[in-house]
Design goal:
about 200 residues, alpha/beta, 6-stranded mixed sheet, 7 helices
């Protein structure tokens, strides 16, 4: 029994160590990576790059200093669900229109769908896939991503997207991507207008 207790303690220690290593990585390493650019041009915020730690703070600072902002251009390959959710709330709270000139994929679509009016360049696409977590063996990774997907599908429906679309928006696995056609995006209510 003592030996089993020792093995149990070692296993618990290993799990705790992994938890704290992941927490350190998330807090001190990822938070210093800025792979995005946020700038204001006239009354429009331009966000280009990954939705990494701090991107929503950068957008929030611009919105607080510039109350005349009426739109945001989202050109992003995706990123952190937390940051996408914060951007979504900022877009909703400030009644912004959303645009994408080069494409908005994965978590970026959560922010994009929050726009009052949603515009997409004829050369851009929206991309959808299942959510993922970078470190699946981590304790931090035991978030219920399926529930998050269901909640976001409901949010998309509240934003005017058809149920037919939300039933298939997570059909691509996390390594793949589904790119609906412009016609589908208009038909299902994701975008209001294509731009040149």
């Amino acid at each position: 029994l003592i030996i089993l207790g020792i093995f149990g303690s070692v296993a618990d220690f290993a799990k705790e160590r992994q938890f704290y290593e992941d927490l350190y990585y998330d807090s001190f390493i990822l938070s210093k990576i800025e792979s995005y650019d946020v700038k204001l041009v006239d009354s429009t915020i331009f966000l280009d790059g990954e939705l990494n730690y701090g991107v929503s703070d950068s957008v929030e600072k611009l919105l607080k200093k510039n109350t005349f902002v009426d739109s945001i251009v989202l050109d992003s390959g995706g990123g952190l669900l937390y940051e996408a959710s914060r951007l979504s709330k900022l877009i909703l709270a400030n009644s912004l229109n959303t645009y994408s000139n080069n494409g908005c994929y994965s978590a970026c679509t959560i922010a994009y769908i929050s726009g009052n009016r949603r515009y997409l360049s004829q050369d851009a696409r929206l991309g959808f896939h299942q959510y993922s977590y970078n470190r699946p063996n981590s304790e931090l990774g035991k978030l219920d991503l399926f529930d998050s997907q269901k909640e976001d599908a409901i949010f998309f429906r509240k934003r005017g997207v058809s149920k037919e679309f939300t039933n298939k928006m997570y059909q691509a696995n996390s390594e793949g991507m589904w790119y609906p056609s412009s016609e589908e995006l208009l038909k299902y209510g994701l975008i209001h207008k294509l731009t040149k």
